[in-house]
Specification:
- By secondary structure, the protein is an alpha/beta fold.
- About 40% of the residues lie in helices and about 15% in strands.
- It contains twelve helices and eight strands.
- A hairpin with a 2-residue loop joins β5 and β6.
- α9 packs antiparallel against α10.
- The longest helix has 17 residues.
Length: about 280
Amino acid sequence: MKLGVIDVGGGVRGSYGAGVLDFCMDRGISFDYGIGVSAGAANIVSYLAGQRGRNYRFYTDYAFRPQYMGLGNFIRTRNYIGLDYIYTTLSAAGGEDPLDYRLVNECGKTLYIVATDALTGEPLYFDAVNDMDQDDYDAIKGSCCVPVVNKPYPVHGVPCYDGGISDPVPLEKAFADGCDHVVLILTRPRDDYRTPKKDVRMARFMRKYPAAAKKMAERSYIYNGGLDLAKEYEAEGKVTIIAPKDISGMKTLTKDRAAIAKLYSEGYEDAKVLEKFL
């Protein structure tokens, strides 16, 4: 059986997925294939590198540094989230918490990183091996580039936004690539459907990139359709959904260390259902 994992990300709510994947490392649960969206891409890359606890440090420690995200960044660079600080200064070889990219490159697993082409609004699927290299993690930066609070991040010359705009629940990609079963890690409760109001409001600030703005305005319908599809596959025995029971109002960029740590612990606990794959 080809077993896949999808981590949909969600900013600091991604700590839930970090807990799930740390449990998988502790129990030796292995996936053949993965897709990471936004923060979910960072989670799965650390999982493939076998770096247990690395993501937790980013969510509960580094995320509270002004260089990581903050108004000062936005005033200086028009980027609230310091993508270069996170994925180069901290993550490069010689950085404070480097990614062991050699192990990612040699693990023999497939990982796609979802970003959104800011010019077309369409999803881009970057390969963690072929589209990245040691200390070149631009694909993750593009996948994590939140519209409005950040300018599009260029990946191979293409301006990119967060992958959650165009393909927030990439199940169709996973099954098209031959997965027999997919573990889907959500960072909202499984019955928490998006409403369009916030997405439409954000789209109004993206006029420079009209195709991406249109996709942002439609984001709630895309996400909700993906969630419905996941439940259909779940009923057929093709998907295992892991989702928090409650996120206590946490948003993408909420700075609440206790809430972030709690979500991580819940993810770790909820992942026990995956022991069936041992």
